[in-house]
From TrEMBL:
Organism: Flavobacterium soyae
SMART domains assigned to the protein according to its UniProt record, in alphabetical order: HTH_XRE
Nucleotide-binding listed as a keyword: no
Keywords in alphabetical order: DNA-binding
Span of domain HTH cro/C1-type: 9-63
Lineage of the species this protein comes from: Bacteria, Pseudomonadati, Bacteroidota, Flavobacteriia, Flavobacteriales
Protein name: Helix-turn-helix transcriptional regulator
Length: 77
C-alpha cells in the first residue's frame, strides 16, 4: 500500500493537468525533490502530504482511496 499513495499523487496531478514543476514550486521545493516523492524514493511526512493535498485541491483521504479505474470504465463488452 505504501507505493499506492505515491502513485496516486502522480495520477491525480496528471489528471488535473498539473506539471511536476508547478506542484514543486507551490510546495517550495525542487522539481527533482518532488519527483522523488512521486516515485516513492523518500518517506512522505504528514505535513508534506497535507501540503500536497492542498496544492492538488483534494482531501488526504481522497489521495489514499483514489482509484483511477473510477475515471475510466474498464469493463469488457
Amino acid at each position: 500500500m505504501k507505493y499506492s499513495v505515491y502513485e496516486n499523487i502522480r495520477k491525480i496531478r496528471e489528471l488535473k493537468n498539473l506539471t511536476r514543476e508547478f506542484v514543486a514550486a507551490e510546495l517550495k521545493m525542487s522539481t527533482s525533490g518532488y519527483g522523488k516523492i512521486e516515485r516513492g524514493d523518500v518517506d512522505l511526512t504528514v505535513s508534506k502530504l497535507i501540503e500536497i493535498s492542498k496544492v492538488l485541491e483534494v482531501s488526504i483521504e481522497f489521495i489514499f482511496k483514489f482509484d483511477v479505474s473510477v475515471f475510466f470504465n474498464e469493463t469488457t463488452r
